[in-house]
Amino acid sequence: MLTPLPSIDRTQQVIDALSDFIESSRLQAGDRLPTERELMVALSVGRSTIREVVTHFQALGVVETRKGSGTYLLKPVSKATIHMPLSLDTAHLRDALLQTLEVRRGIECEAGMVAAKRRTSKDIAIIEEKLDEMERVHIAKGTSGPEDLAFHLAVYDATHNPLFKQLLEQMRGSFERFWTHPFDRQDFARRSFPFHRTLFNAIVAQDPEAARAETLKILDVVEEDIKEMSK
Q: Gene3D superfamilies, alphabetically (predicted)?
């Protein structure tokens, strides 16, 4: 049964509770999940928390929402399976960032190359919209963490391979450290700002090697700042 939760760590608790419910109810692919309202009442949480959890499951490719019909399971889920987040067991921010950066290089270089090959005109419009917003905020504030992340997510979407976004979702906690001003420095990785536009240009030109090169420029700046700012 779904039961009310204590008022801490709401999102993760709802993820766990919904996973347990799916597993214990033996729901299978194609089965409909409880409605948004039913989940809100059963778990005593707000609409925004339920929507955040559904978005999380959608990003992992385990549910889909059909307009006017509800949210349906695409594959069986439990707390021990695909949706569990990956994390690093390290108390040192410098080490955690450098280890995560090694994974980012592999994923983001490949994502940029695949996006350059497969992007559609709609993808280009979305990426450019995110890039324009990133540049606007960056110029106004000198930093643009959330907007920077949104740009990279749009590139992932342009690959038309859902595994890129699923991997990011599993590593979100580790990855998001890059966009939350590590070392309390607003200027972290600021020098990478111009390379986002050149990465976009490479994707527009459908030039995978150029996309890889521009992605590496971004991540090289990130690595330099990690090492310099953590001294």
A: GntR ligand-binding domain-like, Winged helix-like DNA-binding domain superfamily/Winged helix DNA-binding domain
